[in-house]
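Troubleshooting entry. The earlier prediction with 3,4-dihydroxyphenylalanine gave an output that would not parse, so I re-checked the input for stray whitespace and re-submitted. Clean input:
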Amino acid sequence: MSNIQEKIDHYTAELKNWKPTSAQEVEDFRLRFLVAKGILKNLFEEFKGVSNEEKRVLGKVLNGFKQAVEARFNEMKVKFGETQLSTKQNVSQDLTLPGPGFTIGGRHPLSLVRKEIVEIFKKLGFIVAEGPEIEDDWHNFTALNFPEEHPARDMQDTFFIRKQQGNDIALRTHTSSVQVRMMENGKPPFRAIMPGRVYRNEAISARAHCFFHQIEGLYIDEGVSFADLKQTLFHFVQELYGEGTKVRFRPSYFPFTEPSAEMDISCTICKGAGCNMCKYTGWVEILGCGMVDPNVLENSGIDSKKYTGFAFGMGIERIANLKYEIKDLRLFSENDIRFLRQFETEII
Ligand code: DAH
């Protein structure tokens, strides 16, 4: 008699004694007997090699064994499968339970900060204006009083799209370009803020990025003075960082403003006591500003004898950094959900 008969006898005895107590044991059984390289398949493989005479007898035995295994497996599967199923159903049928809930998107921290800044200036009568991110030489540099070949152009590392003597096309390096577009296309008075993305050819690190965001401000009318500039920005800082935040103006240079200044605020983190953020000076710089240079007014078609005005520009990342203490600029553009979730204070 063949080896197959002995094996069938052995497994039949095992089958009789098989009394599983868990779904896992039923699954283990399936993996032993019923899968592609399992016991049943192997027996049928072996069966192929026996003589025709033996086949006649063994065929019946083997088929009977196969049916017994499958029947037993199905019986046990139903037994353990059904118990599982019924507990599951009991749970899901409790219609009084609350739904599972789902996550709703929130605003990006830069959008939150931009919105806050826009709201403050809107209350002062500033409108919001926008301009293109791909900009020509005139609007990004020349009209803003950057003389050709002047080293001031090196202040900002530019991504050029087309280099053509006097007619370059570039990714804008600052939102000041929108000032020019606004003045060219309208009549004073102008009172606007201009948020947008800007680009500079910088190696990406924790402290610098090849793109970031700015908000430009412009106020042009008859008789606008440096006192108006100071009071507007002072008010802005009180609104954004709270009453009592101090400001100071340091003389500076920008080609498009004269006089120019940089504005510092008392450190919002340590309140002036000295910390990492303010490099232990108690002050942090937040923006550049000044009285719009008469050349810029004239370049943009505004009568500089009649009108004066001020402008300012700030980096949104910088403001957000002071608000949320975000040490690494790269976090703003990586879209890491663990970072973004922290700011879901407002639902879109
Ligand atoms: N455009 C300047 C920059 O990107 C910021 C700036 C400074 C804008 C002074 C202004 C200004 O309007 O008056 O660094």
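This one parsed fine. The mean pLDDT is 90.
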